[in-house]
Design a protein that fits this description.
39% helix; binds adenosine-5'-diphosphate; 593 residues; six-stranded parallel beta sheet; binds ligand FYN; 19 strands
């Protein structure tokens, strides 16, 4: 990509139409300003999309970006632009860019930046900021805030650029920090004054940096590979655990080779679903508790032993037997090792290189795991799948989570390229186990924090970066956090179908106000709300679905047409449970009946 200075449509640099002899024109012909340098630096590094929200001091920047061929997707709230940038980072291995105004806009974007960092997604939050001289003396500037200091503890790296000649280096540092090693969020502070600064155009062009090899391969040490293979070889009940780091790494063929050549059962974390199709005979998803408790050697590939994996110990891992287990862990971050339990064989490096090294080291005579182990898993799996099929076949009225998800499961099966975005409590938990995924990086969900509010931001990013159909499976509460972004979806005419699982409240709609007062309980929403009307308000398709047949028909039509659609799926308001599968994390004053 060329770093050549562009002039259209409102040039701040050279203006060839002016007459020779015009001193001002001669000066401007030789200069380039901060706006242009930011744009050129991003383009030079193959950044093609910006997620943001215009306002002081970046409004003109968004216009100029668009004029220069960057795709600028404007949101209604910065948090969702930030979430979109984070998801774009995960899906493309390029840092997703979120552009915001100062102070409040920055803070709104910061939530997404912190979430991206927690999830190990590469993202850069670029925020305009107010006058340094006034901010630092705390003299009360417009939107005064020391944004750099606030961002620092919440992301992987934070930089500020004060001079136009440093824009190239600033953006290069941000890109390299976001992508190299463990990916994460980076904050880039661009004070308002920077944009209008000018410098010699040729010098400005020379100051730009094309980042070479921003995520260098990191080869594992040969003795670490040997150690890992030795531990794996000795296993009687081995298990491979795939995390979203494995999905991000795009080492799909290597991972499939490792799983299939070793014959070891595997378990995908939620965003690793589809790395191999969920219907793969070695998938142990349907017997998760059994394999976690029983496995004697677990190979972690891009998955951390955090709360989602019960920290590698305790009841989930077989209680007293947990100490007998050995872990092999592949991760690019050396300090991830021994974070919760001892790691017998740490394999530090990028997943592609580590997994290739393991596959190479298997040799021709690698023994498959004992049949006793694999057949015990197969037996349980078949039983659980049959039980699930039985539940899914029921057709209660009103719909419950299972009967509604059953039709979504069929549509995803028929459209495996579709991207599923999923948030909620029960809606999340049931969808995770019911809706099978068939291709890598097709499932985006609440991630490491388990947060609500990612829905519409992730959906927009998925549609914009892939052009594929997006199905956002949303709890009604979760949808509320980003619901206004349906206007964004309509404005850009994105192929997104939002399915709101409407059971009238957080978890369910049946709570009562214990005081007997007129207010509804804190977890209860307006009953019978018509979320479909919200989509219609902006020109999208709204559907009110009360049966699986209506839901299935509307979803198929939405996927086929690519029209922005919202299906208000009416679910039995008694169907949910408190916090879904993580009830135990929810302290309660008294046990509920
Ligand atoms: C899974 N299961 C299945 C299938 N897939 N049975 C039949 N068929 C299929 N296809 C079984 C699986 O074996 C488990 O049963 C059970 O369904 C649940 O599986 P899941 O969802 O994979 O596992 P589990 O135990 O819920 O996983 C723990 C977790 C997960 C912490 C990783 O709950 C998670 O990702 N939670 C995120 C929650 C979150 O962030 N929520 C936000 C809430 S908002 P058993 O083997 O019998 O156990 C605030 O409230
Ligand atoms: P999950 O929630 O699916 O279990 P986590 O987010 O906990 O996954 O873990 C992802 C892990 O993957 C992180 O520890 C991160 O350092 C690691 N990771 C990300 N990208 C790579 C890569 N390219 N190579 C190796 N490890 C990676």
């Amino acid at each position: 990509m060329s770093a050549e200075v562009k002039t259209a449509p409102a040039p701040l640099v050279a203006d060839a139409s002016r007459q020779p002899g015009d001193v001002a024109a001669a000066q401007s012909a030789a200069t380039i300003d901060g706006f242009q340098l930011v744009i050129d630096a991003l383009k030079l590094n193959d950044i093609d999309t910006i997620f943001g929200l215009p306002g002081i001091p970046i409004t003109d920047l968004t216009r100029k970006m668009q004029a220069e061929g960057l795709r600028v997707i404007s949101f209604r709230h910065e948090q969702h632009a930030g979430n979109a940038a984070a998801a774009a980072g995960f899906l493309t291995q390029k840092p997703g860019i979120c552009l915001t105004v100062s102070a409040p806009g920055f803070l709104n974007g910061l939530t997404a930046l912190a979430n991206a960092t927690t999830n190990c997604f590469p993202m850069i939050l670029i925020s305009g900021s107010s006058e340094r001289e006034i901010v630092d003396l705390q003299q009360g500037d417009y939107e005064e805030m020391d944004q750099l200091a606030i961002a620092k503890p919440l992301c992987k790296a934070a930089y500020r650029v004060l001079h136009a000649q440093d824009i190239g280096i600033g953006i290069a540092r941000a890109i390299r920090s976001a992508l190299s090693g463990r990916p994460g969020g980076v904050y880039l502070d661009l004070p308002a004054k920077l944009f209008a600064q000018t410098m010699d155009a040729a010098e400005g062009r020379r100051s730009l940096v094309k980042v070479v090899d921003p995520a260098p391969r990191q080869l594992p040490a040969p003795d670490a590979v040997r150690r890992a293979l030795d531990v794996l070889k000795g296993a009687k009940r081995p298990l491979i655990l795939l995390g979203k780091g494995a999905a991000y790494a795009r080492a799909d063929a290597e991972i499939r080779a490792l799983v299939e050549k070793t014959g070891i059962p595997y378990l995908p974390m939620s965003m690793a679903k589809g790395l191999l199709p969920d219907t793969h005979p070695q998938s142990a998803s349907a017997t998760r508790s059994y394999v976690l408790a029983e496995a004697d050697v677990v190979l972690l590939v891009g998955a951390r032993l955090n709360w989602l994996l019960s920290h590698g110990k305790g009841k989930t891992w077989g209680g007293a037997n947990a100490n007998e287990r050995q872990f092999i862990q592949i991760d690019i971050s050396p300090t991830e090792m021994d974070s919760n339990v001892p790691i017998a064989a740490p394999l530090v490096g990028d997943i592609g290189s580590c997994v290739s090294a393991l596959v190479e080291g298997l040799g021709a005579k690698w023994a498959k795991p004992p049949a006793e182990w694999t057949s015990a898993i197969a037996e349980r799996r078949e039983k659980n799948l049959a039980k699930m099929a039985e539940t899914l076949a029921k057709n209660p009225s009103p719909m419950n989570f299972h009967s509604a998800l059953n039709v979504i499961r069929d549509v995803v099966k028929a459209n495996p390229e579709a991207i599923v975005v999923n948030e909620g409590a029960n809606t999340l938990d049931f969808a995770r186990s019911i809706v099978d995924m068939y291709e890598p990086r097709k499932r985006l969900d609440v991630g490491t924090w388990g947060i609500m509010g990612i829905g519409m931001g992730y959906a927009v990013a998925a549609a914009v970066t892939t052009g594929k159909p997006v199905i956002a499976i949303e709890g009604d509460s979760a949808f509320g956090f980003s619901g206004m972004e349906v206007e964004t979806i309509c404005r850009y005419n994105l192929p997104v179908c939002v399915v709101v699982f409407n059971n009238n409240g957080v978890y369910r709609g049946t709570d009562v106000n214990a005081s007997g007062g007129a207010d509804v309980a804190p977890t209860v929403f307006v009953k019978g709300a018509r979320y479909d009307k919200l989509m219609e308000a902006f020109g999208g398709v709204g559907v009110h679905a009360t049966t699986p047949a209506e839901l299935g028909k509307a979803l198929k039509e939405a996927v086929a047409s690519g029209k922005p659609t919202l299906i208000n799926a009416v679910i039995d308001e008694t169907a949910g449970t408190e916090s879904g599968r993580i009830t135990s994390l929810n302290p309660q004053a008294a046990k509920k009946k």
